[in-house]
Amino acid sequence: MTDFFKYQALGNDYVVIDPRYTGLPVTPESVRLVCDRHFGIGADGVLHGPLEEPRPGVPVPLALFNSDGSVCERSGNGLRMFALHLAEREPQAWAGGEPFTLRTTAGDSPVQILDAAAGIVQVGLGRPAFDAAALPLLDEDGTPAEGPTLSVPLTVGEHKLTVTALHNGNPHTVVPVAEPTPELARSLGPLIAGHARFPSRTNVTFLRVVSRELLEIEVYERGAGYALASGSSACAAASAARELGLCADRVEVSMPGGSVGVALDPDGSVTLTGESQQVATGVFAPPLRARLDRTQEAGR
Ligand SMILES: N[C@@H](CCC[C@H](N)C(=O)O)C(=O)O
Question: At the fourth CATH level, which superfamily is domain 4-111+277-298?
Answer without folding.
Answer: Diaminopimelate Epimerase; Chain A, domain 1 (3.10.310.10)
